Amino acid sequence: MPGMSLLHDLRISALLLPVLNLMRVAAFSASAYDNVAVYWGQNSYGAVNSADTANFQKPLAFYCADDTIDIIPIAFVDVFFGAGGAPSMDLANTCNPTDNTTFSGTALPECTSVGADITTCQGKGKLVTLSLGGATGAVGFTDDTQAATFAQTIWDDYFEGNSSTRPFGSAVLDGIDLDIEGGSASYTPFLTAFRKLSDAGSKTYYVSGAPQCEYPDAALGATLNTAKFDMVYVQFYNNPCGLQNYATASEWDFGLWDNWARNVSTNSDVKVYIGAPAATSAAGGGYQTLAQLSNISTTIRNSFPSFGGVMLWDASQAYANSRYDKGIKTALTAAGSTGFTYPDCSAPTYVSGTDYTSGAKVSYGGYIWAAKFYASSTPANTPNGEWSAISACGSGSNPTSTSPKPSTSSKAASGTASPTTTSQAASPTASQTTGKSVSTTASTTTSTSASPSSTPGGNCAGVAAWSSSVAYTGGSQVTYNGGLWTADYWTESDTPGGSAGVWKKAGTCSASNLGSTRATRQCSLVMRPSSHQGLFKSLRALYHN
């Protein structure tokens, strides 16, 4: 019968529709160049525009209605060990410990409606992750054991574990994000424990971080070098290296982050995002018009293979600012979501012994460089160097990298062993600086670099004993407890052989070749990583908390 046939077809269509919708959802690609990550949870717009309630933060699902946003980090779990030893989180006007029911004996709010929204967003092909930290002092670990325990707690409460205190109910998030402002000890063991759990999970999980643009980041620097990250949302705002100084070689430092991604990170596929304020009221400095950010982002996309997209702070600000997020997504997509072609090394080849003036460009070691000021040294990716890498070029090979990959013994993720450094050239000065090449930020050392993977029996003659009061750069050597140790990167007060993992043992000293404490040390004029961080952290706390 015709009527029965039509009814049959309608029933089949009804059954197939959900399947067809799922097929139409574009799967997230971590290797893409046009991803947009937008933080949600803090009602940043409402915090500084209290009278404009119409533009306050909306429910999470509201921001998943179209294809603009690819990743949504939920901000923040801002207390690790609160009431009852449980974590807590504050999602501003959406869900918080004051206005919502909390699990008995804890300050962890029940956010069931957010859980439903998470599932909705994931059904549209978006990653929804959990951001830990923010501008708070209530995060961190006392030791590695506590860090591993917290990884299990987070897994049980937000991922595939079992817990009676699951804020989002049965919803399972897609990964974690570290937005850590201080106290970086034990975050590598935390991530190692989380990776061990997630590697055995039923889907792919991602780990991201949100360091300040000043390289190396004062809080996350050590963790970024020793744990596997899939993407980093570098905050190019509230700092001298922010977007407002994109055209200034002595400040803008995306090249340092590209070098980190390709030559230092334990994950050679890690992607670096340009972190930007989504409106003038979203940060203390660094906001760019849509046209400006589009130009910067597409230029960087075509200049550095590590570029992965743009991160915006935050969703409420982007929507109130005429869908700033949608505009930047359009620009990135137009530039191409896949494929990278290395630009030609169009600048003149660097000539040793030549004096270059400010702004001069040269090609060397797989990069095009611009002189920050007067420059006479060989171009190298060092924070306090005379040169700034403004584009990768040629084959992209970088034999002159001064920041080799760290050697680690822990399995970071997915069965890929971390590479072991076999040689180390002159190392970068350790500093969280403005990038200006001035005499007070220079460091000098005459110590001989040695391979972290050297066999025992290294020559310790003339090598200074380790001192907790000395700042050491990567490649510096010390003696400690009868051993010869080499620093992987900048460090101060981290004990050789300690949990920070900064030092790698290069050999064993015999009584006859132990060095004296009079051997060459790092110059005391090296600027400490925290020298500028505190100034801009106070600004950031007003907006990114």
TrEMBL record:
Domain of life, per lineage: Eukaryota
InterPro entries: CBM5/12, CBM_sf_5/12, Cts1-like, GH, Glyco_hydro18_cat, Glyco_hydro_18_chit_AS, Glycosyl_Hydrlase18_Chitinase
Keyword check for Hydrolase: yes
Catalyzed reactions per annotation: Random endo-hydrolysis of N-acetyl-beta-D-glucosaminide (1->4)-beta-linkages in chitin and chitodextrins
GO MF: carbohydrate binding; chitin binding; endochitinase activity
Enzyme kind, highest EC tier: hydrolase
UniProt keyword list: Carbohydrate metabolism, Chitin degradation, Chitin-binding, Glycosidase, Hydrolase, Polysaccharide degradation, Signal
GO biological process, one term: chitin catabolic process
Segments of this protein annotated with the region Disordered: 393-458
GO cellular component: extracellular region
Signal peptide coordinates: 1-27
This enzyme's EC code(s): 3.2.1.14
Compositionally biased intervals (Low complexity): 399-456
Species this chain originates from: Athelia psychrophila
Protein name as it appears in the record: chitinase
Residue span(s) of domain GH18: 34-335
